[in-house]
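Hi Y.,

Following your request, here is the sequence exactly as I used it, all 186 residues.
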Amino acid sequence: MRIEAEKKLFTRDDLDKMYEAGILDEDERVELIDGEIVKMSNPGRRHVACTNRTNKVFIRAFGDRAIVSIQNPFVLDIYNEPKPDVVVAKPRDDFYESIEISAEHALLVVEIADTTLSKDRKRKLPHYARLAIPEFWIEDVKRRLLLVYRDPVDDNYSTCLTFRLGETVSPLAFPDIIFKVEDLLG
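Below is the corresponding structure, written out as C-alpha cells. Let me know if you'd prefer a different format.
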C-alpha cells in the first residue's frame, strides 16, 4: 500500500503570520511561488551590479512617469508573491504606501538572471503572462543578452525578442525611452 504525502500550500497571509511569529526573519530572502516558500539565492556580484545599473538607468529615464521598485514583494494572487529584481509600476502619489504593488499596477517586470534563468522562465513567466503583465524582461547576465517577452496569451507570451550588446530597446509603456542593452547589462 502506497501512502502519498499531502503537500501544504502556503498563502500570502500564512507568510505574513510566519514573519510576525518570528518563524521567518525579516531579512530572510524568500518568495512565495505556487504556494511554496522558496529560498532565494544570495545574489553574486554580477547580479548586484546589474540590478544597481538597471535601477539607476530606469530611475533616470522614467523620472516621475513610473515608480521603480527593486526586489520588493509583488502581489500576484494568494499563493504567489515573488520579489522580482525590478517592477516598473504606474505612478502613485503615496508610492504604494497604502496598497501593495500588484499585477494591475505593473508596466514592466524585470528579472536579472545569473543562476536563475530556468526558474524565471518556468516558474515566474507563466504567472506574469496569465495576469496580463504587458512586458517581462530577463537580463541574462551570463550570456549578456536581454530577453524581452511581450503580448501575454494565457500563461505565455506570444512575442520573445532577444537583444544583444550594441542594440537598443524601448519598453512598450514608454516607446519614447530608448535603452542601450550595455547600459543595463554592463
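The helical segments are 12-21, 45-62, 117-130, 181-185.

Thanks again,
Q.
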